[in-house]
Amino acid sequence: MQLPxxxxxxxxxxxxxxxxxxxxxxxxxxxIWSEYLDPAVVRDFETAHDVRVTVDxxxxxxxxxxxxxxxxxxxxxxVCVPDHLVPAAVKLRLVAPLRHANLPNLRHLExxxxxxxFDSNNVHTVAYQxxxxxxxxxxxxxxxxxxSWGALFDPxxxxxxxxxxDSLRDTIGAALKFQGHSLNATGPAQLRAARDLILAAxxxxxxxxxxxxxxxxxxxxxxxxxxxxxxxxxxxxxxxxETAYVIPKExxxxxxxxxxxxxxxxHRDLAEKFLNWVLDPVQGARLANFTRFASPNAAARPHLNPxxxxxxxxxxxxxxxxxxxxxxxxxPRTRLYDEVWTQIKAR
Length: 347
Prior knowledge:
The chain has 347 residues and is α/β, with parallel strands linked by helices. The protein has two domains: 26-130 and 255-316, 3-Layer(aba) Sandwich (D-Maltodextrin-Binding Protein, domain 2), CATH 3.40.190; 132-253 and 320-346, D-Maltodextrin-Binding Protein, domain 2. The chain has helices at 5-24, 39-49, 61-75, 86-91, 111-114, 150-153, 168-178, 188-201, 211-219, 230-239, 268-278, 281-291, 306-309, 318-321, 334-346; strands spanning 27-33, 52-58, 78-82, 126-138, 162-165, 208-209, 225-229, 243-246, 252-261, 324-325. Strands 1, 2, 3, 4, 5, 6, 7, 8, 9 and 10 form a ten-stranded mixed sheet that branches. Helix 2 links the parallel strand 1 and strand 2 (52-58). Helix 7 (168-178) packs across helix 8, helix 8 (188-201) runs parallel beside helix 15 and helix 9 packs parallel to helix 10 (230-239).
């Protein structure tokens, strides 16, 4: 029997108009560093929870924070926030307090990552991945391996064409370390000296790159050395055995990236399900095996690649760890870094 006109035409039209509203409740929007989320982990979450996940990426932490301030905290559900920017994100009310009842997998984190100094007791964030900052380089015949930030800042110790990292705290921090200072130094004279080191290195560099771009330059042989994060170096070393990674003898940075729920997240419940998903030991190991960064998940260790656990580029030995420090939120004094970085990029 043929349906009445209204049933044949009006009802399908109403269903079509309702479809976006129905599907919106099953969507999750994630904002994270590029090449930092295993697509297979995302697909399995989509299947398990009958949702669609959209992943947007950023290349530097400062632009991420600016986008959240510009309304992104209402656009995205989950955001990856570097350790030193967590206090600022909390103060600006860009991230929501976590409901721990929805995060039973928090118990799998190593104790030191359940009580980070920038967010004790994981009030607003959960640990995602951790790593270091160092020099990824190509071994060159007749040249010793670099072991100092001098490979960037001392022409006499230059290893070959190099890239600088397009990240103000990281690159200024490397220059500060080369001078024997803390990554978190705020003395005007110290920062001016760091600025001058970077400005002197800038004409000798082949450019500023993000960490993935720096790794790719070394692999493509258009640079012999790049300032990168450890995971990019580990992936590059797996692709080309003639490349290596070193943490300079002057010391460097240890960092912890976190995941947070945006303050005005459209799908807060789903966002917390996603956080709990990546805190699962098996999923946490899959992520670390993909990114080649270190996992903060103690229960994930049995599932990690055995070779990665033995790789000092991913899990540094104790004597190297002793030379590392975290970036800290510097509050109003961050303005000094902003001024120095503006001068560096403008010249």
